[in-house]
Each structure stands twice: as structure tokens, then as C-alpha cells.
């Protein structure tokens, strides 16, 4: 999976430089937040998984930064059509058959601010798939979270042995991982700067710090990250391990900052 992630990153950076990627995302920053919010809201309304929403955002960011298509700032409806098409593709790839028994296109039409006819949605779907070169299987942070949890050997936390406690704790941890992953989707710069594997390590550190008493997220990063890296790279280089630990520490701080910002925003909305 790590090799697949590297291949995806190499393919994308072969089409666009980091400078162009950042500048193109900054150019649409004013609408991207609303598009991500629409994808997340549609996912909740249609009972789609967080992985589906993550894939849709990955497709959308890839299209916005690497394609030659130009969308005018006054054409927000076209951006919404793009985000709906990306979610359309993601749910057909990721969602189980029992959640697709009703027309997905019709459901997405009802959950969007603007209702598009199915023909328009399918035309945009074809354009996005062409830009993706039909490579719809993409790596997201949640791909790594269950694997890394097993590697840090924290069965006592994720799979507790006490009767009546194990399932509730597992659900709580996975739910928290989904919420943190959703939080990261809103920050395009974080998704660009950090690999999904780094974001997953940061999420695990934040969760372990939350469910363990008297441990700060920053304190736990070196131990947890080193534990994972030693099991993934048995003969890894010490300098590389230190580099990854620094990146995970930075990612933890950014995610914690985003959490605090969202909490303040929610509290301010309650007082309106």
C-alpha cells in the first residue's frame, strides 16, 4: 500500500509541480470549502462512508489541479456539478451493493443545492474519469489506520478484553478516526503536504493520547511512529525515521489546530 501511495504521488507530481498545485488550489479556495462541505453533507444524507467522501475529495482536487479545464469564478454551479460527479464515481467504487440499490444519481440530485439532470452528471463523470485515467482506486488515510493500529500492538485499547466494553470502545475509536479524517478534508494544503500514511500516523497518535490518561499527542508521536516504522521498514535508516517523526509531529499539531478552530466555530454558532 505504501508503494501504491508513492506511485500515486509520483504520477501526480509528474503532471503538476507543487507550486502550481498550491497556486491552483488557492485560486479556488473560496469555493473548495463549500464543495467539500457539500460532499460531506451528501455523504451523511445518503449514508456513505467517510472513505467514499475522502475518495471524492481526492478526485476533485486532482481534477482541479492537474486538468486543463478552466472553470470561471462565476460558474459555481459547474464546480458543484464536478463535486457531485466525483462523489458519484466514489460511491459506485466504494459503497456496498446494498447501499446502491436505489438510483445513486437521483439521490445525489436531491442532496445537492443545485439539482442536475442525470445526463449532465454522467457527462461530467466521463470527463473526470478520463482525467483520472480510470484510476479510481486511491489511497486515503483510513486505508492505513486499521493496519497501523495493529502494528503498534495496542490490542488492549482497540480490542479490550473486558466483557461488554470491547465493541463500544472499538466503535468509539473508529468513529473518532473518521471524524479526524473528515476534518483533514477541509484543509487542501495538509492533504497536499502530508502523505496519507503520515496523516494516518498522526490520527493514531491523537486517538491514543485521547483514550489514554495523562499523555499528550506530541509526547506519544516518537514512540508510536518509531514502533510503526520499525515494523514496516525492518532495515530502515535512522535519519529517515527522524524525518518521518518530525512530519507526523507537524501533522498532529495542524490537525489539533483545525479541531480547535472548528470547535470555536461551532461554539460561536450556538450563541447566534
TrEMBL record:
<protein>
    <recommendedName>
        <fullName>Cyclin-like domain-containing protein</fullName>
    </recommendedName>
</protein>
<dbReference type="InterPro" id="IPR036915">
    <property type="entry name" value="Cyclin-like_sf"/>
</dbReference>
<comment type="similarity">
    <text>Belongs to the cyclin family.</text>
</comment>
<dbReference type="InterPro" id="IPR039361">
    <property type="entry name" value="Cyclin"/>
</dbReference>
<dbReference type="GO" id="GO:0051301">
    <property type="term" value="P:cell division"/>
</dbReference>
<keyword id="KW-0132">Cell division</keyword>
<dbReference type="InterPro" id="IPR013763">
    <property type="entry name" value="Cyclin-like_dom"/>
</dbReference>
<keyword id="KW-0195">Cyclin</keyword>
<dbReference type="Pfam" id="PF00134">
    <property type="entry name" value="Cyclin_N"/>
</dbReference>
<keyword id="KW-0131">Cell cycle</keyword>
<dbReference type="InterPro" id="IPR006671">
    <property type="entry name" value="Cyclin_N"/>
</dbReference>
<feature type="domain" description="Cyclin-like">
    <location>
        <begin position="33"/>
        <end position="130"/>
    </location>
</feature>
